[in-house]
Amino acid sequence: MTERAEKPFLYVVVCAAGIAAGVTELITAAQRRGWEAGVIATPVAMGGFFDTGAVEARTGRPVRSAWRSPGDPRPFPPPDAVVVAPATFNTLNKWAAGLADTLAVGTLCEAAGLGVPIAVLPCVADALAAHPAYRDSLTRLRGMGVRIADPYTGEPGPDGHRPRFGWERGLDLLQRP
Ligand SMILES: Cc1cc2nc3c(=O)[nH]c(=O)nc-3n(C[C@H](O)[C@H](O)[C@H](O)COP(=O)(O)O)c2cc1C
């Protein structure tokens, strides 16, 4: 049987970008705004990009990365909304192309098809963002109703500091009509 959450349930999809180390900030902000959160990470992101133990302690749920076995209960309730943060070049291109070879991309493809609101915080270097396939992917995802935040390159500014990622932008985008 599928579990129902008492609070609206937010899927946080985490990809393998360096900035992922700060994802607990998003989860804490979401909880403050009344969401219950569960994290789905890409397999590469599970390899040291963020503190999975800290995320599990904060959400009270396991971080998911692989498909469940047939017959196992669904580990998360169905999503009321999804934030993809950080979103990588790789995952965004695969999602737009419908290549569901990770639980994260499969979940995104399905959630979009169900009409679940989805916000995306890309973290993609300018050199990769210049690739025509990436531009086409963003156009396609926007056409599917996906809400995509302004570009963030992850690179240091002229002062040598990396600008703030602004994790709460994902929650703000979900609130837009
Ligand atoms: C330390 C490190 C930082 C990375 N940061 C980024 C990044 O900010 N954005 C990005 O698109 N890829 C980044 N990558 C490359 C991705 O990890 C790589 O493309 C990977 O295949 C993405 O897998 P995923 O989309 O399934 O998470 C980084 C790789 C490493 C090793």
From TrEMBL:
What superkingdom does the record give? Bacteria
**Mind telling me which SUPFAM superfamilies this protein's record contains?**
Homo-oligomeric flavin-containing Cys decarboxylases, HFCD
Q: Which Pfam families match?
A: Flavoprotein
Provide the GO MF annotations for this entry.
catalytic activity
Q: Where is the signal peptide?
A: none
Q: Which residues does the UniProt record annotate as the domain Flavoprotein?
A: 12-133
Q: What is this protein called?
A: Flavoprotein
Annotated source species: Streptomyces lucensis JCM 4490
